[in-house]
């Protein structure tokens, strides 16, 4: 019998055939409340994803890595998105670090789920979602979603998440 070598591997990162890396710097964002005086080249997060299986019934796989930085006290977070296809759910699996999964329904009600190593989070396709690093190390979250999900970033810009997480000097999280 022929044994095929693994094409993808989770080490500290997602590596392998078809994996594409993207990096988000502060200058690439407009979703922080106040970025004045913060280095625009500050790397906030990286995404490693395999999304080249774009046919009905296939799945995408990725790893988001959020650095433990703040922007004038506001915790590092992803842009957040809705799915274009609201029937397409997604799974997030925290593989390292600590943080929050911020969720929002279509009426603008928001809540957060604690992310700790090993926690698994099911995200229905009708919810907007964003990752927030509240810890002192990289937050690493593996993601699996249907190739038909699509990302609707414009909808989050039109209807932003109503709460923001800030880290105090004592390391406590405050919502504003």
Describe this structure in words.
It contains one helix and 15 strands; from the N terminus they run E-E-E-E-E-E-E-E-E-E-E-E-E-H-E-E. It has 176 residues and is mostly beta strands. The strands form five sheets. A six-stranded antiparallel β-sheet has the order 3-4-5-13-8-11, with no helix packed on it. Strands 10-9-12 form a three-stranded antiparallel β-sheet, with no helix packed on it. Strands 1-2 form a two-stranded antiparallel sheet. It has one domain: Jelly Rolls (Sandwich). The radius of gyration is 16 Å and the shape is globular. The longest helix has 6 residues. Its EC number is 5.3.1.9.
Helical region count? 1
Query: Judging from the principal axes of the Cα atoms, what is the shape?
Result: globular
Structural class: mainly beta
User: Unreliable segments (pLDDT under 50, ≥5 consecutive)?
Assistant: none
- Alpha carbon gap, first and last residue: 59 Å
Count of distinct strands: 15
Question: How large is the share of residues in beta strands?
Answer: 35-45%
Label the CATH architecture.
Sandwich
Indicate the radius of gyration in whole angstroms: 16 Å
Number of domains: 1
For the largest beta-sheet, the strand count, sense and barrel status come to:
6 strands, antiparallel
Topology as a string of helices (H) and strands (E): EEEEEEEEEEEEEHEE
Mean pLDDT: 94
Main CATH class: Mainly Beta
Q: In percent, how helical is the residue content?
A: under 10%
- The CATH superfamily label reads Jelly Rolls
Domain Glucose-6-phosphate isomerase prokaryote: 41-173
InterPro entries: G6P_isomerase_prok (IPR010551), RmlC-like_jellyroll (IPR014710), RmlC_Cupin_sf (IPR011051)
GO molecular function, one term: glucose-6-phosphate isomerase activity
Pfam families: GPI
